[in-house]
Amino acid sequence: MVKMETKPQLKGILPVIPTPFKEDMSVDIDAIKKVSSFCIESGASALVFPGVASEYDYLSAEERLILLEAIYDVNKGRLPIICGGGKGTAEEIGENILKSEQFGVHAVMILVPKQFADDTIGATNFIKKIAEIAPNIDIILQNAPKPIGAGLEPEAICEIAQEVKQIKYVKEETLPSGSKISKLIKNAPSHLIGVIGGGGARYVIDEMNRGAVAAMPAAEITDLHVAIWNAYKKGDIETARTIYRDSLPLLIIQAVYRMRLTKYVFTLRGIFKNSIVRAPLPELDELDKKELNYQIEVLSKYFKKELVS
Question: Could you read off the pLDDT of 21-68 as tens digits, one per residue?
């Protein structure tokens, strides 16, 4: 069974911070500070950067560190910071982690790469190597579906976690995630603290029902996701379900447009000036924007009003 340990546990809503860009496509430091403050004030339990939803594949190593430092400066130690290890060789990811430690990183999220889809031993050795390079930080093992990640079965994830004691959490994103979360919790090694839900909080109630300790969605409706989490934890399941149901139309669209939608919603909420992405994502047309404007109007009753521009 998953157990607790003395180090403060990651729990609740852990939003992935998006990367804002200026019109010239350079990173926008002021905007990332603003969105970080938004997440903190919304009641987030930790800040995650960079993740897949931060477009880390389209950021240079230097940009990642500059942005992480900006988040660190805004946070001022209030919340744990979770750093994504990025992609590359084990050595490259290990070096990324070492460079991030200066910014008070609480844990690092490591994606099991897609080349290990049928190679549990290879995946284990890959994660072991990273852990050897950066031995002083906890690991969140990210199990993403193909083609983003390896999409491993729970048995393989437990095997890897058994061999690498630094793995304290698993972020489970493969579908159907619910049954896999249950299997991970049932069969996890004793040093694993818990399982974190993925999938953009589209399955957050099921994840909580199954014992997930946290959820890691995109950041554009962090205050709403915190309201769902808090209502559920207080035992007000019907309120949690009501807010969850109301959020689903937006999250269904978010599954298609991803970071572009996140940034567009942040323009509606007065956090970003534009919805520019570097990643090759579909464009929003005028009818898409009209629908999103409607969805945000519907959901605005759940937002923390002081956070809305």
Answer: 999 999 999 999 999 999 999 999 999 999 999 999 999 999 999 999
214 has which bridge partners? Answer: 12, 196
Separation between Cα atoms, residue 61 and residue 63, nearest integer Å:
5
Average pLDDT over residues 282-290: 98
The secondary element (H helix, E strand) that includes residue 36 is: helix 29-41
Write out the DSSP string of 38-86: HHHHTT-S-EE-S-GGGTGGGS-HHHHHHHHHHHHHHHTTSS-EEEE--
List Cβ neighbours of 263 (8 Å cut-off, separation of 6 or more).
18, 20, 220, 272, 274, 275, 276, 277
Q: Does the structure show a pLDDT above 90 at 202?
A: yes
Would you state the structure tokens that stand for residue 234, as one six-digit string?
Answer: 């207080």
Q: How many angstroms separate the CA atoms of 69 and 75, rounded?
A: 10
Name the token pair of 154. Answer: 């729970």
How many alpha carbons lie under 13 Å from residue 153 in its C-beta half-sphere? 5
| Strand ranges of the sheet holding 167-172, from the earlier edge strand across to the other edge | 12-13, 214-215, 194-197, 167-172, 138-143, 105-111, 81-84, 47-48
